[in-house]
């Protein structure tokens, strides 16, 4: 081994330490790694001899990391994650020919997934990877070209943000439920209807009833959902009314799956932004997807029926 890496222990010892530290058990670590408990103990002992540092406090039926062991675990995990990520990327993609987009699962499901095929038809030599997660991508660590972020304050150091789509919030229901009212659905009747609520939202039913000039009870009953897409799935299956957001419901309204019974809308506090590192603004792949997304956004705005 090169002198540069002379202090790197054998990988099997590193894996034995990480599993033991995570599980605080040589027995469980051995089961996870499909080796004997004696083999795990041997690897840990060798690692402690190599570093001349005690990594664990050993008791009759338990383990406890020493202070030095806790510090070492943090660094080891970072190293293993970097190796795993590098290997995964090497196996699964051609870096030069892949465009990586990060966005929320709800926006990926209800908006981008219905359109991305057009980009791929126009750019057949370029693969697309859509990473849909609730958390924000870290451009310094993650392999990401552009993110579509949902924010009220799109200010990120070292990143450029461009307004992509704004949205309005308004009641929606299935077309079948709407037709069941036979033209007699009024805003005040919603007070006694089955209302669906999203737990994590910046606008709620009280905001909309205020805009409609209706005094609602302090506590509105109904079904609560932790995720917008799950709530909209219930609404499409005739299970009540929900506050829909333009970007997530307009396509289904246009297709006749949902109905928007009222013209009263409130402006969403948050919007979608295209976000990417300032130092990659001239990247050809980035500009290709950026131009395409902006074009799709303009077409989407035209599809919104007044």
From TrEMBL:
Keyword DNA-binding: yes
InterPro entries with a match to the protein in the record: LysR-type_TF_proteobact-type, LysR_HTH_N, LysR_subst-bd, WH-like_DNA-bd_sf, WH_DNA-bd_sf
MF-aspect GO terms: DNA-binding transcription factor activity; sequence-specific DNA binding
Residues in HTH lysR-type domain copies: 9-66
Cited PANTHER family: GLYCINE CLEAVAGE SYSTEM TRANSCRIPTIONAL ACTIVATOR (PTHR30537:SF26), HTH-TYPE TRANSCRIPTIONAL REGULATOR (PTHR30537)
NCBIfam families given in the database record: PRK11139.1 (NF008352)
Organismal lineage: unclassified sequences, metagenomes, ecological metagenomes
Pfam families associated with the record: HTH_1 (PF00126), LysR_substrate (PF03466)
Signal peptide stretch: none
Keyword Transcription: yes
GO biological process terms held by the UniProt record: DNA-templated transcription
The family this protein is said to belong to: Belongs to the LysR transcriptional regulatory family.
Species annotation: hydrothermal vent metagenome
UniProtKB keywords: DNA-binding, Transcription, Transcription regulation
Protein name: Glycine cleavage system transcriptional activator GcvA
């Amino acid at each position: 081994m090169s002198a540069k890496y002379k202090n790197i222990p054998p990988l099997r010892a590193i894996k034995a330490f990480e599993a033991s530290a995570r599980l605080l058990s040589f027995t469980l670590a051995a089961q996870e790694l499909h080796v004997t408990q004696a083999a795990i103990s041997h690897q840990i002992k060798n690692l402690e001899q190599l570093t001349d540092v005690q990594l664990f406090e050993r008791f009759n039926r338990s383990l406890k990391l020493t202070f030095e062991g806790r510090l070492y675990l943090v660094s080891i995990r970072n190293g293993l994650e970097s190796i795993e990520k590098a290997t995964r990327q090497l196996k699964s993609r051609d870096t030069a020919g892949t465009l990586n987009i990060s966005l929320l699962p709800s926006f990926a499901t209800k908006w981008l997934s219905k359109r991305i095929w057009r980009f791929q038809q126009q750019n057949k030599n370029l693969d697309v990877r859509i990473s849909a997660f609730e958390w924000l991508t870290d451009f310094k660590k993650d392999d990401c070209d552009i993110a579509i972020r949902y924010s009220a304050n799109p200010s990120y150091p070292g990143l450029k943000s461009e307004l992509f789509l704004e949205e309005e919030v308004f009641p929606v229901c299935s077309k079948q439920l709407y037709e069941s009212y036979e033209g007699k659905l009024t805003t005040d009747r919603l007070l006694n209807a089955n209302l669906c609520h999203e737990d994590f939202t910046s606008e709620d039913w009280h905001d909309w009833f205020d805009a409609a000039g209706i005094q609602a009870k302090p506590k509105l009953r109904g079904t609560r959902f932790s995720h917008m897409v799950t709530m909209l799935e219930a609404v499409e299956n005739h299970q009540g009314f929900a506050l829909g957001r333009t970007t997530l419901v307009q396509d289904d309204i246009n297709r006749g799956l949902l109905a928007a019974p009222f013209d009263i809308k409130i402006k969403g506090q948050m919007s979608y932004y295209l976000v990417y590192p300032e130092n990659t603004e001239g990247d050809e792949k980035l500009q290709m997807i950026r131009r395409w997304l902006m074009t799709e956004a303009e077409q989407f705005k035209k599809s919104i029926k007044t």
